[in-house]
Specification:
The chain is α/β, with parallel strands linked by helices. 42% of the residues lie in helices and 12% in strands. It folds into three domains: 123 residues, no CATH class; 111 residues, no CATH class; 95 residues, no CATH class. Strands 1, 4, 5, 6, 7 and 8 form a six-stranded mixed beta sheet that branches. It has a two-stranded antiparallel ribbon with strand order 2-3. The N and C termini lie far apart (72 Å).
Length: 399
């Protein structure tokens, strides 16, 4: 798909007339067009389409705006594509004639994939913030707040036995595509039935001993496959296949071979920490984490927003991390991102997890930001037991 620059056309007269008639008070997507004007331009997305061959891409500025409107209304790709074809207010925002046939839903996911591949995923937010600054709705100083929430990975949550079984199955599938003849010569016939279908707990034995035996069988099979892949007679590039590398990492994390060359699951005291543990071969960066009563496998996102009076509350920074990253590790990164956009606040309101005593002092001195957060509760045994002298019984004599 090649890139072409398309001039942003005015809203067709028929589209504007009918949209105003149908929405006399406007709609949120019409307000985006009316208040923010031409939010995106094709030139801003040139890096997403490096090829000069192929069918011309659909207008990039429209795809970007559809992505924003889709998120606002919480629509699936199919629903968003239908809105482009059938909703008058969307045609108004996109400068489309009423008879425009729209796009296929697959174009939207492809566009997001190009954004991620070109590391341009923040471009949509940055341009929106620039436009808000131009309109006088956003500026540095003032008060902002930050908080984090969990992001679920787009994977099936699996227990340990499912993870190792599905990891081996994923590696076999990748090898079946890359070297089908080689794989057929190396693996036993029974593997095709054992790993031919998705590994699910429903099909596994229920007894503890039987599950242990199955896990060790999977472990032996995995080591056998790795030995074949790393054998000097195998093609050198097989070890570089992503599925094979994930298999190697998961086997290091989950299994060990004893002095008698027997395969066993690792015990909890001999397993890697949760920050390193792979939970699915299909998303090797997703991690398990727990925050108070909530536990999940995936990521964590930190959102910062303005919270001044008589102005819109706008998201100013988005920081996505692995789920095991603590909040305090992100505070300086948030400030750095806001500084690059010239949006540093005077007062930054955060939860307890984002601050330390040293950080509260240094941030004030180096960046001129007042970090405002609840103080950590006293965790000493005196405070917990209600006896003795806890922190509250002491004051600092600054003189």
């Amino acid at each position: 798909m090649c890139f072409r620059i398309e001039n942003i056309a005015p809203i067709p007269q028929q589209t504007a007339t009918i949209a105003r008639s149908a929405f006399p008070k406007g709609s949120i997507v019409m307000s985006i067009r009316d208040e923010l004007g031409f939010l995106y331009k094709d030139e801003q997305f040139r890096a997403l389409f490096p090829s000069k061959r192929g069918q011309p891409a659909w207008s990039a500025w429209r795809l970007a705006l559809i992505t924003v409107m889709q998120y606002i209304e919480d629509l699936t790709d199919t629903q968003a594509a239908q809105a482009v074809r059938g909703r008058i207010d969307w045609k108004y925002a996109l400068s489309l004639p009423l008879a425009d046939p729209g796009i296929d839903s697959s174009v939207l996911s492809e566009f997001r994939g190009r954004l991620v591949k070109a590391q341009a995923e923040e471009l949509l937010l940055e341009r929106l913030l620039e436009r808000c600054q131009e309109r006088g709705w956003l500026s540095g100083g003032g008060v902002q707040r930050s908080d984090s929430t969990h992001v679920l990975a787009a994977i099936r949550v699996m227990h340990r036995l499912e993870v190792v079984g599905e990891t081996l199955r994923a590696a076999l599938n990748s090898l079946a595509v890359a070297v089908p003849q080689w794989l057929q010569e190396k693996v036993p016939v029974e593997w095709f039935s054992r790993y031919g279908s998705r590994v699910e707990d429903y099909h596994m034995p229920k007894g503890t001993d039987e599950r242990q035996q199955l896990g060790e069988t999977i472990g032996r099979d995995g080591y056998r496959l790795l030995a074949a892949v790393y054998d000097h007679d195998a093609p050198d590039w097989l070890v570089k296949l992503p599925g094979v590398e994930v298999l190697r990492q998961v086997w290091v994390q989950q299994f060990h071979i004893d002095a008698d060359q027997q395969v066993h699951f690792r015990q909890p005291n001999n397993s890697p920490p949760s920050a390193q543990l792979i939970h699915s071969p299909y998303d090797v960066e997703a991690r398990f984490s727990r925050k108070r009563e909530t536990q999940w496998v995936g990521y964590k996102v930190h959102l910062s927003e303005t919270c001044g009076e008589n102005v819109p509350h706008l998201i100013t920074h988005v920081e996505t991390t692995v789920a095991t990253t603590t909040d305090v590790q992100v505070t300086d990164r948030i400030h750095q991102g806001l500084k690059q956009r010239q949006l540093l606040p005077l007062t930054h309101i955060v939860d307890t997890g984002y601050v330390s005593a040293e950080q509260m002092l240094n941030t004030q001195d180096t960046a001129g930001i007042e970090l405002l957060a609840p103080v950590l509760p006293d965790s000493s045994w005196q405070a917990q037991a209600g006896i003795g002298f806890d922190v509250a019984n002491f004051t600092i004599d600054w003189d």
